[in-house]
Amino acid sequence: MRFLHTGDWHLGKVFHEVSLIEDQREFLRQVCEELESARKGGNPYSALLVPGDVYDRAVPPAEATQLLSRFLNTVHSSFPELHLFFIAGNHDSAGRLSFARELLDSQNIHICTDTSHYTEPVVLENGGEAVCVYQLPFLYPLSISSDDEKLLRTQQEQYEYALSRILQVHDKSYSGIPAVLCAHLFTAKSAVGSSERSFVGTAEMVDTDVFNGFTYCALGHIHKCQPCGSEKRVYYSGSPLAYDFGDNPDTFMLSVTVNGTDVPSVQKIPVRPLHRLAVLEGAFSDFYGASADKKLIEKYRDCYVKISATDTSVVQGAMSLLRTNFPLCLSFVPKIYASASSSGSVQERKSAIESKNSCQIFEQFLSDAYGSSGFEEELPAEEKQCVQDEKKLFSELSKGLSW
Ligand SMILES: [Mn+2]
After folding, report:
1. Residue 54, Cα to own-chain centre: how many angstroms?
2. At what angle do helices 21-40 and 62-78 cross, to 10 degrees?
3. How much distance in Å is there from the Cα of 238 to the middle of ligand 1?
4. How far apart are CA 151 and CA 145, in angstroms?
5. Which of 24, 26, 40, 165 shows the smallest number of beta carbons within 10 Å?
6. How far is the CA of 272 from the centre of ligand 1 (A)?
7. b/e map 291-327, b = 16+ CB within 10 Å
8. Keyword Nuclease on this protein (predicted)?
9. Ligand 1 centre and the CA of 369: distance in Å?
10. Per-residue pLDDT for 201 more than 60?
11. C-alpha span between 311 and 322 (Å, rounded)
């Protein structure tokens, strides 16, 4: 039996003030395309597994709910036999994601947002094969209560308990049938990108041993596609699009073929993003002006771009100039800002600031921005006058304020 695993859609995400809804629409079109090509190839999918973070926010924008609504409608009318599984991730509002859940359940769309029936599987049957699918939404402290009323506080304690309960019930009622799990959590040793809403420390991490006994675990939460543990039964599909410049720009869906309780065969299907994310480094003049690199501009014109510039002086109106060559340039960070804000320890910077009055801090800001403390001497007369006027104005303003 074949499953398509893709999670962390984050529908409605806004990235550097740009809505990604068209990028997400294109991704969902590719999901339909994959379902269609599998059917045409005579090896159709039985289910789509979406383990959480369906939406980016608890209150998603209307265009995101419309996108999901249309997707469900398209998929259900084109593939009425396909089962769809959605669980609530830490970005979703369980209450809102569960809208029309009971009604949708009768249409093969299974939305799980609470733990009231987590030991009850949806049993899929296809050509004499059966698979039990269990769903567990993101667990908050005390989401799961144990039979002996022992408090389960950490994620490890909760998953250990909940998954062993599932397997107990499974072994009793569905012995020999493969058990597939959909869950949204942070496993220890997984490689994290930079767009997850992460936790501090390791208290919220769960050891991969808790999944022993499941044939396949479709996990969400980590945005990088990867297997977890040594047995290759537990996978993160990762997010379908890179959601931060620190994320890997190559993203995937997973095609999972479950063959009895053997280790399933898992194949990565690349997602072709509408716009790739790219981080470019170089001098401002490489990206704009007479000596700009034409090939670079051609290559990255359609990408969401972050430019880290090596320039040591301020470039006036840099973003609007850059956008003439890179219309989707979302971030421009000259090196001087990056180094000025990060040099020295927090304590050093704090005491350096505390020893100065506000006018001195303003002067420091100007010299950081212009790249050196003697910058004024090198300025043309007109700009020099301008800086002096700014200092004077700041000094007068700061007298009237208590800092
Ligand atoms: Mn996520």
Report:
1. 11
2. 10
3. 8
4. 7
5. 40
6. 19
7. eeeeebeeebeebbbbbebeeeeebeebeebbeebbe
8. yes
9. 36
10. no
11. 14
Rounded distance from Cα 235 to ligand 1 centre (Å): 14
- The answer, yes or no, to whether residue 97 has pLDDT greater than 80, is yes
How many CB atoms within 10 Å of residue 216? Answer: 27
- Centre of ligand 1 to C-alpha 54, Å, is 8
- The fourth-level CATH superfamily of domain 2-270 is Metallo-dependent phosphatases (3.60.21.10)
Compute, in angstroms, the gap from residue 230 CA to the centroid of ligand 1. Answer: 23
Residue 171: DSSP 8-state: H
The token pair that represents 31 in the structure block: 């999901």
Q: What is the pLDDT of residue 336?
A: 64
Q: Structure pTM?
A: 0.83
SS3 call for 340: helix
Residue 146 near residue 161 (C-beta atoms within 8 A): yes
Task: Return the C-alpha torsion angle 134, 139, 158, 112, nearest 10.
Answer: -20
